[in-house]
């Protein structure tokens, strides 16, 4: 019931959006719709299994059912999406888009797709929503954004589409392996595949998810897409969309191919760690706030991927916790980036400086976001990264040690940005800037409170991940 | 038998109708009514409510599969005439001829869906092809159309010759035209069959590949599809091509359980070459019409998956594929013929000048690319599923190559989207009536409906 509402509300609201002509009305409408989704997501926490999930016939001839599964992990990601959306709409409330009704409509449709991915417990349904998120994203990135957006988005689309199709082959293969030909998650979990089969299908799924996350060497689409898209879209991409890949590995791969996961763990962890260091170094070299945040996102996601494949209790809890926290933190960074771009018209470090004199509130709030990005204790990211590193440490000391370098490098690039953008003398571009508007302040304050509260008391979120982790390790 | 007889009769009737009236609109409407009647009679045949019984001495076997395909083909033709009827009658002076020829093509298609005898197959192919040669050249004052007609005719008659040669060899070796008696398709037959029979079947197979424009017999296709009047190329690319596949499936399905390895290897090569040629060449096209011609070769490659797998899933799948591909292509061409400039630039800014047309065109493009929520997704899904169901490492390699090329196809299909939505320009579109728009919108809705509930289409096949 809840799961259907989570999909249906943004879907219907998004379709209605296309017919709203007034720019103000469309902003209010989409904010209202996203708040309604948030309400439903919160309601979900008070519900038992029966009111959360649904299981109804869909395609009888094929054996696919409309089945959902909202466990702790799915619930926390639904909550993340439901929190992120209103904050995006609030913080970018004053931004103007051409054809605003299409923009907000597509944003809401993407939300419907995301929710579907997180709740689906039927492989074909999952595939449907997986692709459905992509289509609105394709239009959002291609229609609004920088000059090179069309080519960049196209690369993104073809990449992910190829990945999805490979996954479809994997899904079909598993489908014909199930005794009663079904796509149900539970039937996939019950499969006993040979080592050879697992090793082969593993890659079909993993490539799809690795492109989405993205993991080195499949990451090349990401920095360009983040930079070229409108910031509101980038927020969705980086705060929620990349979590699809991480989530999908935990939900669709770990319990289905346990043997292949452990035999391929080394390769994946090595790739992830290489990617983390590589992206960290690139982040240091950037002169562009958006690209820096994009590379820093690759670092964090790489750590999540490595921790998943460490495949122990601590690491998995850390990943599920960090998925939520990373969404909050990176959203904060993007809101700051957008605020700076709106106020000064540039996002190049070299043209910025001394913003703290002009925008003290932004500087303080950004400091909190920056420290969270470095995973300082008492910020939410610390708990998640600590758990993941210690899980990785249990798996392999050296991998964990090398990966830890990324934390130091994170401090280098994040504080470097802080220093160049906010301190020093004002430059031409920043001389006449004024303090950020109240709606942006509000969004950032909410996030800052979230960062500190979850940094001090993360227990509720850790509890939320317990059932998922226990289930996977029990397999 | 209803469809075969009535479509031929309707064709003759329409031919004489041009003597009675010269009003093209009346003729068009008469054709629509005739198509409706044909559809009803075929449905009546399917459920044996009312059947014209003819003793065919086992030359035909009317299966549910064949009859259902007839209904789909006739319904698709009906949609095609409803959407593009006005363009058909504009092509030349004698509107009635074109509808007559379309009915004759349908007659050929109904034969191809139900033949049980190589001779009948030959007749079906010929009855279907000869009207097409004429339709290709129907724009008499257009040099390209004439060139295309001549090319198609020469190449087509050549392939007919090969087909006939093959049939003759098979008859010479086995003494029968009955497809059930023809041995070398099955694995056991292959070793014991005389060499002549194997060669004969290979020739038949090549000739059929020519008809469905699979590589390496595809060279006629781009020129013919590009040269013939746009209204007719969409008909040739879709309904006619689908009929070719149904004939192939009919021919091979009888030995599905023991299909010899030889055919699998041959098909494997043919499929990959077709996918490569169709997709890679389509990328470099500037004209949307020519791009669609190459993409139709690529789609044929995907449809051949059904033949490779040859099981019950592939039977359902080929029907779904035929429907999905036909509806989307007919839709795209219905818009294409109204656009002044056939190059990709001609589509620039269509979303601004004609938002409704751009939207439905986007749905058609999505369907061709195989994006979920459209019929095209389930079409591709069934093709992949059929091959994976048969299993085998070669099958897995085939589907992986298939999806890589499906991703390549997105590259050129989405160029249309980019032109419509993201590029500046003012696309010029002629004579768009409200009814035309609503028709296209309904078509797009149908595609989405099949994309969410493909069951509806497949269930009819069983009930």
Features:
heterodimer; A: 475 residues; mainly alpha; 2 strands; 77% helix; globular; B: mainly alpha; 19 helices
Number of helices of chain A: 20
Helix/strand order of chain B: HHHHHHHHHHHHHHHHHHH
Main β-sheet of chain A, in a few words? 2 strands, antiparallel
Question: What's the multimeric state?
Answer: heterodimer
Count all strands of chain B and give the number: 0
Shape of chain B: globular
Query: Largest interface by residue count?
Result: A-B, 28 and 30 residues
Strand content of chain B: under 5%
Structural class of chain A: mainly alpha
Q: Major β-sheet of chain B, in short?
A: none
Distance between the termini of chain A: 28 Å
Walk me through this protein's architecture.
The complex is a heterodimer of chains A (475) and B (463). With 475 residues, chain A is mainly alpha-helical. Chain A contains 20 helices and two strands. Chain A has a two-stranded antiparallel sheet with strand order 1-2. In chain A, helix 5 (100-119) packs parallel to helix 11 (231-253) and helix 11 (231-253) packs parallel to helix 13. The radius of gyration of chain A is 21 Å and the shape is globular. Chain B is an all-alpha fold. Chain B has a domain at 260-463. Chain B has helices at 2-20, 24-46, 64-90, 95-112, 118-136, 143-174, 187-192, 195-211, 220-227, 230-253, 261-283, 288-309, 312-336, 350-353, 355-369, 375-390, 393-422, 434-452, 454-462. Chain B starts with a helix and ends with a helix. The model of chain B has no long low-confidence stretch (mean pLDDT 88). Chains A and B meet through helix 6 and helix 7 of A and helix 16, helix 17 and helix 19 of B.
């Amino acid at each position: 019931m809840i799961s259907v509402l989570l999909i249906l509300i943004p879907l219907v609201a998004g379709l209605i959006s296309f017919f709203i002509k007034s720019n103000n009305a469309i902003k209010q409408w989409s904010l209202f719709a996203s708040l309604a989704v948030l309400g439903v997501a919160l309601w979900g926490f008070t519900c038992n299994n029966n009111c959360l999930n649904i299981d109804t016939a869909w395609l009888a001839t094929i054996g696919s059912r409309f089945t959902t599964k909202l466990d702790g992990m799915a619930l926390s990601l639904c909550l993340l999406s439901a929190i992120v959306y209103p904050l995006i709409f609030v913080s970018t409330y004053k931004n103007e888009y051409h054809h605003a009704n299409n923009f907000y409509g597509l944003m809401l449709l993407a939300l419907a797709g995301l929710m579907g991915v997180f709740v689906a417990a039927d492989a074909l349904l999952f595939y449907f929503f997986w692709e459905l998120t992509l289509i609105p994203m394709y239009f959002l990135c291609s229609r609004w954004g920088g000059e090179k957006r069309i080519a960049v988005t196209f690369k993104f689309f073809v990449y992910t589409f190829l990945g999805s199709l490979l996954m479809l082959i994997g899904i079909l293969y598993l489908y014909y392996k199930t005794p009663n030909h079904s796509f149900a998650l539970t039937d996939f979990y019950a499969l006993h595949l040979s080592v050879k089969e697992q090793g082969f299908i593993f890659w079909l799924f993993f490539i799809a998810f690795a492109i989405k996350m993205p993991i080195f060497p499949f990451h090349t689409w990401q920095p360009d897409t983040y930079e070229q898209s409108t910031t509101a879209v980038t927020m969705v991409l980086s705060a929620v969309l990349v979590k699809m890949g991480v989530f999908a590995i935990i939900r669709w791969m770990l319990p289905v191919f346990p043997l292949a996961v452990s035999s391929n763990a080394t390769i994946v962890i090595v790739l992830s760690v290489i990617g983390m260091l590589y992206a960290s170094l690139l982040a240091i070299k950037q002169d562009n706030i958006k690209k820096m945040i994009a590379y820093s996102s690759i670092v964090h996601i790489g750590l999540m991927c490595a921790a998943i494949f460490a495949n122990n209790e601590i690491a998995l809890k850390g990943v599920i916790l960090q998925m939520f926290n990373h969404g909050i933190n990176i959203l904060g960074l993007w809101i700051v980036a957008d605020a700076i771009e709106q106020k000064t018209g540039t996002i190049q470090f070299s043209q910025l400086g001394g913003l703290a004199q002009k925008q003290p509130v932004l500087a303080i709030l950004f400091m909190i976001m920056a420290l969270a990005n470095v995973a300082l204790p008492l910020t939410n990211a610390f708990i998640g990264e600590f758990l993941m590193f210690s899980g990785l440490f249990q798996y392999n000391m050296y991998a964990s040690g090398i990966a830890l370098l990324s934390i130091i490098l994170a401090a280098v690039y994040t504080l470097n940005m802080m220093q160049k953008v906010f301190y020093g003398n004002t430059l031409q571009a920043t001389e006449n800037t004024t303090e950020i508007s109240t709606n942006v302040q509000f969004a950032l304050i909410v996030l800052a409170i979230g960062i500190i509260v979850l940094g001090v008391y993360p227990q509720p979120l850790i509890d939320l991940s317990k059932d998922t982790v226990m289930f996977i390790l029990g397999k | 038998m209803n469809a075969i007889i009535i479509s031929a009769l309707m064709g003759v009737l329409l031919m004489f109708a041009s003597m009675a009236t010269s009003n093209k609109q009346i003729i068009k409407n008469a054709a629509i009514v005739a198509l409706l009647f044909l559809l009803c009679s075929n449905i009546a045949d399917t459920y044996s409510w009312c059947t014209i019984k003819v003793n065919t001495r086992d030359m035909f076997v009317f299966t549910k599969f064949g009859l259902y395909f007839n209904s789909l083909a006739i319904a698709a033709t009906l949609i095609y005439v409803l959407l593009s009827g006005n363009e058909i009658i504009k092509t030349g002076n004698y509107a009635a001829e074109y509808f007559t020829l379309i009915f004759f093509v349908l007659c050929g298609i109904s034969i191809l869906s139900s033949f049980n005898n190589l001779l009948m197959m030959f007749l079906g192919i010929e009855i279907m092809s000869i009207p097409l040669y004429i339709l290709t050249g129907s724009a008499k004052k257009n040099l390209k159309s004439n060139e295309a007609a001549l090319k198609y005719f020469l190449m087509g008659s050549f392939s007919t010759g090969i087909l006939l040669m093959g049939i003759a060899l098979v008859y010479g070796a086995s003494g029968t035209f009955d497809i059930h008696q023809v041995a070398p398709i099955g694995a056991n037959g292959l070793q014991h069959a005389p060499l002549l029979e194997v060669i004969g079947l290979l020739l038949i197979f090549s000739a059929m590949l020519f008809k469905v424009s699979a590589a390496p017999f595809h060279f006629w296709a781009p020129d013919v599809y590009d040269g013939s009047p746009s209204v007719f190329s969409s008909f040739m690319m879709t309904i006619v091509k689908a009929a070719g596949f149904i004939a192939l499936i009919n021919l091979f399905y009888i030995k599905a359980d023991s299909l010899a390895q030889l055919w699998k290897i041959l098909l494997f090569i043919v499929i990959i070459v077709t996918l490569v040629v169709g997709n890679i060449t389509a990328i470099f096209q500037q004209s949307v019409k020519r791009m669609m011609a190459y993409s139709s070769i690529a789609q044929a490659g995907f449809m051949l998956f059904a033949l490779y797998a040859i099981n019950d899933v592939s039977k359902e799948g080929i029907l779904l594929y035929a429907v999905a591909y036909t509806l989307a292509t007919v839709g795209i061409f219905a818009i294409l013929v109204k656009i002044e400039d056939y190059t990709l630039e001609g589509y620039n800014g269509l979303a601004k000048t004609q938002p409704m047309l751009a939207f439905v065109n986007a749905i058609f493009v999505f369907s061709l690319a195989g994006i979920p929520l459209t019929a095209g997704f389930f079409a591709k899904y069934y093709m992949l599923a059929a091959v994976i169901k048969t299993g085998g490492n070669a099958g897995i390699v085939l589907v992986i190559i298939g999806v890589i090329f499906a991703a390549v196809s997105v590259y050129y299909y989405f160029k249309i989207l980019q032109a419509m939505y993201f590029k500046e320009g003012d696309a010029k579109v002629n004579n768009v009536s409200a009814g035309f728009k609503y028709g296209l919108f309904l078509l797009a809705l149908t595609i989405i409906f099949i994309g969410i509930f493909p069951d509806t289409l497949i269930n009819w096949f069983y009930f």
